[in-house]
Amino acid sequence: MPYLLRKLFIGKKDKITFMELGNHIIIGGAEWCALPGLNIPAVKARVDSGAKTSALHASNIQKINRKGEKWVSFEVHPIQESRRITIRCEAKVIDQRIVKSSSGIAEKRYVIQSAMKIGSHQWNIELTLANRDSMGFRMLLGREAMENRVLVDPANSFLLGDYAEGKINELYQHVKDVRSGLRIGLLASNPLLYSNQRIMKAGEERGHEMVFLNVQQCYMKLDATHPEIRYRGGKSLTNLDAIVPRIKPNLTFYSLALIRQFEALGIFCANSWEAISKSRDKLYSSQLFSQNGIHIPITGFAKSPLDTTDLINMVNGAPLVIKLLEGTQGKGVVLAENAKAAESVINAFKSLQANILVQEFIKEAEGRDIRCFVIDGKVVASIQREAAKGEFRANLHQGGKASLIKITKDEKKLAVKAAKVLGLQIAGVDIIRSNRGPLVLEVNSSPGLEGIEQATGKDIAGMMISAIEKQLGWQSDLVIRTSDKKIT
């Protein structure tokens, strides 16, 4: 073997660690590193030769334009499972790349360059910036950074030295304990959805720490003294400032229970559990609209199939619209074009014990409706949606088209009032124009952002984050948390 071997005995009988093999350093499956250029004197890194790129835990990432060059400012919590130490860093952006995480999720990340010190050795490496809260290790050392320099002994760890808690405190004594930004959780199911990605990005751009929380991976402890919500792996969620709920219909029951628990813990929820519950119950929301003078298409509801004919006549006959109470985003909505078809569909649903509403068909709308996006009692954007060919309902999820539209004062008032009656701070209010004036079709507590942002060019996600800031009385105050002391 052409390498010069140097052996180091480290105490236990017959245990030998090869610290250097020729010009290569031998490291374990985990090692302490330092990033001098970022003022990070110690961070525990997971050594992973299966990963191409190295990564550093970063939150509150903000873009900076410095003399025409793209830089980023970001926060690092360098110690595992702890937020008591926070470093605000700045670095020049050398690239942006699509990186796929170990969970298979692809995301676009900033790439920076920094000196890395490991043991007595130091060289420059590239790091992608990513939120690694769920990964445990605050840094991942990939094979590009180790190429031609390092060999890995995966059976051992900290071959170049381990740090006790006292040493960590000594290394980080220069850090000021100052906090900036909010900790906002996005409670949803799919992190790849356009709306969810936009909300996460908008929060991060405004200097907040955004955490994606999969509804099904949250669990709670009900206790009079120490109630809790935890996330997969036992991570406590009690340190969040706010929650943005975006709930799938089939997860409504469990999601509402979670939101109730967050509210009980004093965590602000952009939409309350009660407001979401009202919006998800089409019958109850229709009753509330009727009681509060909000005009809707004439609607009927019945349990017995014996009065189906009278029910149809009550909503001005066919054609009419039949809606499942649990449906949303255009699902569970059927147009019955004649009385016979209406009777068949209604009786078929009832035989399946499904709860349905029947609603008059507004022919003069010609397959168009208006989506008003309401935030904190104000219509911030509106679009007209037109049904795809062969469809009767304007729905972007089913190939419909969106276009800009100027709505009337009455339509604005109607949208705001509908959201207010349900208690929603954030809502998508669907309005249809009829011969007797604007009518509310339904109100969505988790409105999609893609169609309305692309049609209007407005930063709706940013407006949602701004509304949360206002509710919590937060003002942007970018703080550099490290002293001028340079780590060497």
What is the strand and helix layout of this fold?
Elements: E1 5-9, E2 16-21, E3 24-28, E4 30-35, E5 40-47, E6 54-57, E7 59-66, E8 69-76, E9 87-100, E10 106-118, E11 121-130, E12 139-141, H1 143-146, E13 150-153, H2 165-171, E14 183-188, H3 194-205, E15 209-214, E16 218-221, E17 228-231, E18 235-236, E19 242-245, H4 252-264, E20 268-269, H5 273-280, H6 282-291, E21 299-300, H7 308-314, E22 320-324, E23 333-336, H8 339-351, E24 356-360, E25 368-375, E26 378-386, E27 401-404, H9 409-422, E28 426-434, E29 437-444, H10 450-456, H11 460-472
Parallel strand pairs: 3-13, 5-12, 6-11, 14-15, 14-19, 19-20
Antiparallel strand pairs: 1-2, 2-3, 4-5, 6-12, 7-8, 8-9, 9-10, 10-11, 16-17, 17-18, 21-24, 22-23, 22-24, 25-26, 25-28, 26-27, 28-29
Explain how this protein is built:
With 488 residues, this protein is α+β, with helices and mostly antiparallel strands. Among the domains are: 5-171, Cathepsin D, subunit A, domain 1 (Beta Barrel); 183-276, Rossmann fold (3-Layer(aba) Sandwich); 298-361, ATP-grasp fold, A domain (Dna Ligase, domain 1, 2-Layer Sandwich), CATH 3.30.1490. Helices cover 22% and strands 36% of the residues. It is built from eleven helices and 29 strands. The chain has helices at 143-146, 165-171, 194-205, 252-264, 273-280, 282-291, 308-314, 339-351, 409-422, 450-456, 460-472, and strands spanning 5-9, 16-21, 24-28, 30-35, 40-47, 54-57, 59-66, 69-76, 87-100, 106-118, 121-130, 139-141, 150-153, 183-188, 209-214, 218-221, 228-231, 235-236, 242-245, 268-269, 299-300, 320-324, 333-336, 356-360, 368-375, 378-386, 401-404, 426-434, 437-444. The strands form six sheets. It has a nine-stranded mixed sheet. The protein has a five-stranded antiparallel sheet with strand order 27-26-25-28-29, sandwiched between helices. The protein has a four-stranded mixed sheet with strand order 1-2-3-13, with no helix packed on it. Helix 3 packs across helix 11 and helix 4 packs antiparallel against helix 5 (273-280). The radius of gyration is 28 Å and the shape is elongated. Residues 1-20 and 477-488 have low confidence and may be disordered.
